[in-house]
Amino acid sequence: MQSRTTTTVMLGIAQTLAWASSYYLPAVLAGAIGRDVGTSASTVFGAFSLALLVAAAIGPFAGRLIDRLGGRPVLIASSLVFAAGLAALSQARAPIHVFGAWAVMGLAMGSGLYEAAFATVVRLHGVDARRAITGITLFAGFASTVGWPLSTYLDGVVGWRGACLTWAALHLLIGLPLYALLPRAAPALPVSKADVDPRDGGSALSPAQQRRAAFLMAFVFAVAWFNSTAMAAHLPDLLRAAGATLAVAVGIAALVGPAQVAGRLIEFTLLKRAHPLLSARLAALAHPLGALCLGLFGTSAAVAFAMLHGLGNGILTIAIGTLPLLIFGAKGYGQRQGLLMVPARVVQAAAPFLFGLAVERWGVGSLWFSAMLGLAACLALAVMTADTKAAASVGEPATP
């Protein structure tokens, strides 16, 4: 049986490749693609938003397949689809081709990014998957660090079409073999939404509490992805609105990536024995606290804001994998994870546009909107904590 550490490393490397060649691709290549096919960069980002919507639609189906068959065949298929989508994008001659290629990429994103990797390790290791989930995010936290420079270099050497073909080849040469070496999981039938067994790691919540937990969790995940994507698209502009120069704003915004990795390291070390709901509550408060600092102290607190946002976002990414395992257990995890992430993928697709409108209207004041969302997510987590404590008081051993 393959060790959990080996599985984590293999999935972490493959996830770094998957994120670098999909989520982080448009930031570097959108302008070049738009110029070559006769459209704007914003249209290319519109095609990327379509991919996120496709990913939302395919996610529950992919999760259900992982529950039944294990993650290996689904992830192998995702590598092939990633390669096909990138190859199709490299041959685009018109905007409609770009949209078609990104729709194919959406199929791969919905079956080959974090949710699928998390479901795979849960399928293999059950309730002991928390550290594996954290380890995968530690690796993939460097996806932008690897992806942006490599895509920029390839664009300069072989053009954007060659860059897409190179990424497609890397999926076949690296991602596909890594997934093929994953251990097979014994087939298992999925369970119903209400079939949560505390012996399998789930909390002893009543059916009504389970439904409430599912809605609250979906809301928390949607807030996490909305704020993350909004900041990724608009943080430099926000900092400039607060009074920073362009060079300073870009430099400070670049701190978010390392801060995310630092947050995951904190979760992996200092918070490894903490209850996942406690870690999530602390993480949800980080963005509002950073926004408060920036609002009170202006650009002198810009670094603090970027670091706090990154720290919180890094830990919340782990919570997306661990909270469903905590509340519902390992059985049926993949399908539940896919369903819980549908609202997150939808708002993620809309986040750059919606938050862009807020920035145009209110400037740095738009941070109060994202901060209020963060506080609402923290409140939702507090309700989940109270429900879990109530369940623990009638027989569960652990309390948050």
Automatic annotation (TrEMBL):
<feature type="transmembrane region" description="Helical">
    <location>
        <begin position="282"/>
        <end position="305"/>
    </location>
</feature>
<feature type="transmembrane region" description="Helical">
    <location>
        <begin position="160"/>
        <end position="182"/>
    </location>
</feature>
<protein>
    <submittedName>
        <fullName>MFS transporter</fullName>
    </submittedName>
</protein>
<dbReference type="InterPro" id="IPR036259">
    <property type="entry name" value="MFS_trans_sf"/>
</dbReference>
<dbReference type="InterPro" id="IPR011701">
    <property type="entry name" value="MFS"/>
</dbReference>
<keyword id="KW-1133">Transmembrane helix</keyword>
<feature type="transmembrane region" description="Helical">
    <location>
        <begin position="241"/>
        <end position="261"/>
    </location>
</feature>
<feature type="transmembrane region" description="Helical">
    <location>
        <begin position="365"/>
        <end position="384"/>
    </location>
</feature>
<keyword id="KW-1003">Cell membrane</keyword>
<dbReference type="InterPro" id="IPR020846">
    <property type="entry name" value="MFS_dom"/>
</dbReference>
<keyword id="KW-0812">Transmembrane</keyword>
<feature type="transmembrane region" description="Helical">
    <location>
        <begin position="74"/>
        <end position="92"/>
    </location>
</feature>
<feature type="transmembrane region" description="Helical">
    <location>
        <begin position="44"/>
        <end position="62"/>
    </location>
</feature>
<feature type="transmembrane region" description="Helical">
    <location>
        <begin position="213"/>
        <end position="235"/>
    </location>
</feature>
<feature type="transmembrane region" description="Helical">
    <location>
        <begin position="98"/>
        <end position="121"/>
    </location>
</feature>
<feature type="transmembrane region" description="Helical">
    <location>
        <begin position="133"/>
        <end position="154"/>
    </location>
</feature>
<keyword id="KW-0472">Membrane</keyword>
<feature type="transmembrane region" description="Helical">
    <location>
        <begin position="311"/>
        <end position="330"/>
    </location>
</feature>
<dbReference type="Pfam" id="PF07690">
    <property type="entry name" value="MFS_1"/>
</dbReference>
<feature type="domain" description="Major facilitator superfamily (MFS) profile">
    <location>
        <begin position="7"/>
        <end position="389"/>
    </location>
</feature>
<dbReference type="InterPro" id="IPR050189">
    <property type="entry name" value="MFS_Efflux_Transporters"/>
</dbReference>
